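Worked example (supplementary).
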Amino acid sequence: MRTDRINREIAAVTDKYPDANAVDEPGGSVGLVIPKFPLPAGFTSEMARIAVRIPALYPTEKLDLFWLDPAVACRDGAQLPNVMTHGVTIAGEQWTQISWHDNGPHDPNRVSVLGFVHSIKQWFAGQVGSA
Amino acid sequence: MKRYRLTVPEMVYADVRQHLLHGRNEEVAVLFANAATSDDVTNVIVRRWEPVPSAMLLRQAPDIFSVDSAFIVRHAKQAATRGESIVLAHSHPMDHEIPRFSSADDCGEADLYAFLQVRLSNRVHGALVMSPGGVAARFNLVDGAQVAVDEIRVVGRRVQRHRTCSTTIPHDEDQAHARQCLIWGSHGQRVLRDTTVALIGAGGTGSVVAQQLIHLGIGGLLVVDNQLVEESNLSRIVGARRDDIDSTPKVDVVGRIATAVDPSVNVWPIKGDVTDSNVLEKLKGVDVIFLCTDSHHSRAVVNAFAVQYVIPLIDLGFLIDIDEQTSQVIAAVGEVRVVVPGGYCLSCAGVLDADRIKAEKASSEERAAHPGYYRALDIPDPSVITLNSTIASLAVTIGCDMLIPTMRPVHPLDSYRYNAVKGIVAHHQKTHNPLCGICGTEGRVAMGDLLPLPQ
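After joint prediction of all chains, the assembly is encoded as:
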């Protein structure tokens, strides 16, 4: 069971990404997997699996990091930045951890999961100069 | 012996009471609740309610009622999807004593429980009866057994505890408290003696809070701290001695104070971390929590826990800022914050620092990998017993206000700030965000065991 707030925020992501799937994790966090996340030109695929973790104390705790399908790479062969860890398990699957942080001031009254996902979209665009 | 408790947020209780007692006929409401069970207490916490409209009452008179089953079925479906229990509340408007369930109530409830055992199995359901003279309740347990509720607790600006006929508050004949009884009466003293407080952190502020509660004659004190006394603590931990250094847990210092001052105060020392679920589990039955830790992670966990289990929380802390160049004190501000239903919580009030929480939650491997990022956690904050004691006294006074019926109730938006540089104590009102993910309508309020313990 989750709070209504988290269910509402997951529903907002699912509205935008209908294949998104939320999985409760031990400790009260929720793994949210978006299997068909559109990528800008410049990557080896047009879509990628990504995952975010909604921490147990969200929104007091901030959303941080995201996880990416290990198969995704830059088309020009450049290394993906912010890759800290491989082989992380979220929602029962293996991921590459992208150590990216939203460094803006955290306001639990304004933050949203969908907004965080949008920031990830901007991160991808920034990697290939299409922001 | 297992105790049974019904907890109702004050604003819900006020609305239900107004509905049930607004006329000469019996009125009915459905309360939706979540359970909180521990070894010694089964607590059913009301989250929301629905009045039964007259159109859905098949019979309605000053001494009887009957609800259209369609209404119950519809709301049972809602409760099923939300994991909630049902407490059927009705009035005895002509009864001016603490009400008793009638034989008609017995029959009606038997049918209701038979239905709920099928539709909403493995949950504790119940019934509440309210009159102008009082309130009583009983539960239908998971195994079908019926038990009287020992206490109906209304939590908000104050903690109102409605005892049923079978339970009484213990007497306190101790002359040690005679002078304070002149302020709040022997009943107020009995209320304190019947209160169990959780104290999170037994350091600079926590030890003073503990000392005062013990002198006041509190009934029980559950003290959580995972540290030993260090030499640098001797200047500000009340009761700490030189021979405690590096050997005595801080929680045991509190136990020693109680033994010396008032051995009838039950102290349960827990040498552990409140972010550990096994520790948190033990706090489910307490009456009030005093939060006296510097850790933002601990405070975030206890804040969420208090909201989830509708336990009043009094958070206190002191921030002293020193100019590194001039060594002048730039700011020295202590604050006492009250988290109760209807008010703000530490999250929506912006008290908690998300980056600090993240840093405090980091594993030892992560800290070792990025020592620069985590270095700030190891820098001790300035602290002095005089300022800590001021803020601790303010917090305990607010706790007494909340608990003792003759004292001034707190306001749900209250916070109290002691500015030591300016030498003033000022009263502030914070803002509650109704959409707060913790204390808002979509948050953790009264969710009880339905949600995992916060970590």
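Two points are worth noting when inspecting this output. The first strand of chain B starts at residue 3 and ends at 9. The interface with chain A takes residues 83, 300-301, 303-304, 346-348, 350, 352, 354-355, 357-358, 433, 435-438, 440-444, 447, 450-455 of chain B (CB under 8 Å).
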